[in-house]
Amino acid sequence: MCCESKRRFLLLYATQKGQAKAIAEEIWQQAGAHGLEADMHCISEMDKYNLETEKDPVVIVISTTGTGDPPDTARKFVKKIQDKTLPPDHFAHLQYGLLGLGDSEYMFFCNGGRTVDRRLQELGAQHFYDTGLADDCVGLELVVDPWIDGLWLALKEALQLQKEKEGMNNAVDAASSPLSTALHAVHELNLSSEVQNLKLEDEGTRGSDVLSQKVDDINLVAPARDTEPSLVHSVPPVSQSALNIPVLPPEYIELQFQEAQGENPHLSSLISEGTTFEVPVTKAVQLTREDAIKTALLLELDIADTAFEYQPGDAFCVICPNNVSEVEELLHILGLSEKGDDFVCVKVKQGTKKKGASRPQHIPERSTLKFILMWCLEIRAIPKKAFLRALVECTSDAGEKRRLQELCSRQGASDYTRFIRDSNVCLLDLLHAFPSCKPSLSLLIEHLPKLQARSYSVSSSNLYQPGRLCFVFNVVEFPASPSRPVSRKGVCTGWLAELIAPLLHPSKNTLDTKGESSSIEKISIFPRPNNAFHLPADPSVPFIMVGPGTGISPFIGFLQHRQKLREQHPDWVFGETWLFFGCRHQDRDYLFKQLRCFLENGTLTHLKVCFSRDSSTAEVAPPKYVQDVLRLCAKEVARVLLKDGGFFYVCGDKKHMADDVSDAVVDILSMEMEADKLEAMKILAVLREAKRYLQDVWS
To answer: What are the FAD-binding FR-type domain coordinates in residue numbering (predicted)?
Structure first.
């Protein structure tokens, strides 16, 4: 080992989108200031560490993906520790602390971390530090920062206790060690994600705080005349405070311009999830009226000549680029407008202080500048505090420099949340707000995350439409705000809407045979199978579908599949089917009025619809939302779930619908069973565990 064993600890991370890795790197960087050295590895690199023989404390940072799954990089590790033949004392020698990352908008919050934590405990491992669960819904830093703050004392005491135990002879009673008592007396951090329980303002007052760099040489600029803070202005006390800011991350990427030309990499080389397929868009339909609040589009893809397979209920991912005008604007600000089509070679900087530095996997070794910004980097990502800290060094104006320092400091935590995180500010917004900030492209490569493919639910059945795949989406709109002066469309939905515009509004040139073939656009996709959100294996089992708005998408595939099965197997017994659909206006955004066809041919047994914004002259106002309609059908819903062993599917918006539907089901179960709410919640938990209450939701 490169580190002295008595001061070493093992640091493992399991990441899906890079956040867990970034936090692990922050811990690694801070460790040196505490006289410690972190032996850091991705948890997938099991040839570089061995928990079976590990004597030093272990720190694990792990995220959650999908519907509560560990990240892809942790799958082999989780499979290994889940081995049921392992004895209960397999990890009895192991001391560890775990930081889980998640989003409380989703049902299985931090389940990736919880799964690993629970299994390590079952195998005898011991906590030397309390588990932290950070919530991306309110800001990971609200838990991450204080968790890292408390980590160092716990690590030092664990290492000291380990050292004393190693030096003791058999006659010495380990329990008499004052450090043993001290270890158990370590104060417990309240790691709730509730903001009111975190007194972060107290953290900055510690005189011995060595976790972050104490800034003594900042010239305090006079506060702006504005009485209200904003992205570019601060007010007391932040504007008059000495600041604790993060350690400056070491640079580790350099670019070398090349005169030789060539070809950019194929998009498939950017994807590690599996095989990609380039498929033509054969049909586009606008499902909403022009005056609807949201624009919903249906696209049909031709997958006949590919090996792409799916089931109704599955999802798939679309590989999309950043907005071309935003990329050109970024190149202009960086002073690289004339070099966008030049090829560069991306290499690790010689002599970098970054441990284990390597070229990010999502960045090709050789490509054009424009290709990197278009296809590789998430330029819309909300900048992390480490990125803001790095941008400070690229900013020449003293006032702008100070404000960026404030936004990444502990004292400016609430300003960061309000003006950057909650306002969805991206790099371009920052560069407009702080015009003297001129970062290098290498800095962007170091700090911007991978441009993620966007996931969509399949809205078709391969049995019903062989060789075709359909999906439905709303074109996402981000209105302008004080922190973001321009409105924007979603990265993928905006691109798709622009791409298929000729199919929606064909010009005279595309109506003739010659123009038709040239107007066919292709997109790159790859499958993302859903392990649970499928039709019941037994067709006689009844099921209920709840899908307002575009949440109806997978249920169209369900119904198409069921209709085809009924045609092919007239002798089969099919269970009843319920669909609860809602939208704002019946005449503007009732996405699939052909649902009546499923009702008429018997595929759909019950169709319940509601319209939240339509006015009514009825004496008793009709229900507005799907959860209200569910309550009106309480007896039938309870019968399907409790008596008939049916399934319950929910698809759509998490924040404004799925939780309300869950609450309605609890109320229904409580009322129909004549049980208290707690008992009803237990029943719902059992249904979830049995995969009979299933969700496909997004925030």
So the answer is: 274-536
The count of other CB atoms within 10 Å of the CB of residue 413 is 24
298: three-class secondary structure by DSSP: strand
Report the 10 Å Cβ neighbour count for 181.
10
What CA–CA distances, in Å, run from 318 to 72, 329, 426, 452? 19, 24, 22, 9
* Confidence tier at 592 by pLDDT (50, 70, 90): confident
Structure tokens at 344: 């560069």
At a CB cut-off of 8 Å and minimum separation 6, what does 191 contact? 130, 131, 132, 133, 134, 143, 146, 147
Phi, psi at residue 373, to the nearest 5°?
-75, -30
The two tokens of residue 305 are 């000549």
Specify whether the CB–CB gap between 545 and 513 falls below 8 A: no
- To which H or E segment does residue 468 belong? strand 468-474
| CATH T-level topology, domain 7-164 | Rossmann fold (3.40.50)
Q: Where in the chain is the domain with CATH 3.40.50.80?
A: 543-697
d(CA 658, CA 640): 19
Residue with tokens 């404030």: 406
Comparing CA positions, the residue from 144, 316, 334 lying closest to residue 255 is: 334
pLDDT at 168: 64
Residue with tokens 């306002």: 423
Per the prediction, the chain carries an average pLDDT of 87
Residue 75 and residue 59: Cα distance in Å, rounded?
18
- For tokens 């619908």, the residue is 657
Residue 562 near residue 460 (C-beta atoms within 8 A)? no
Reading the block at residue 528, the tokens are: 């993302």
Write the Ramachandran bin of 57: left for phi over 0, alpha for psi from -120 to 50, otherwise beta.
Answer: beta
Collapsing DSSP states into helix, strand and coil, what is residue 675? coil
Q: What are 216-259's pLDDT values in tens digits? A: 334 344 444 557 999 999 999 999 999 999 889 899 999 999 98
Collapsed DSSP state (helix, strand, coil) of residue 257: strand
Return the HEC string of 521-537: CEEEEEEECCCCCCCCC
Per the structure block, which two tokens stand in for 596? 């009546």
CB-count exposure of residue 482 (10 Å: 0-12, 13-18, 19+): exposed
Q: Cβ(603)–Cβ(562) under 8 Å?
A: yes
> Looking at 221-230, 272-281, 339-348, which range is the least confident one?
221-230
Domain(s) labelled CATH 3.40.50.360 in the chain stretch across 7-164
Amino acid at 337: S
Fold of 543-697: Rossmann fold (3.40.50)
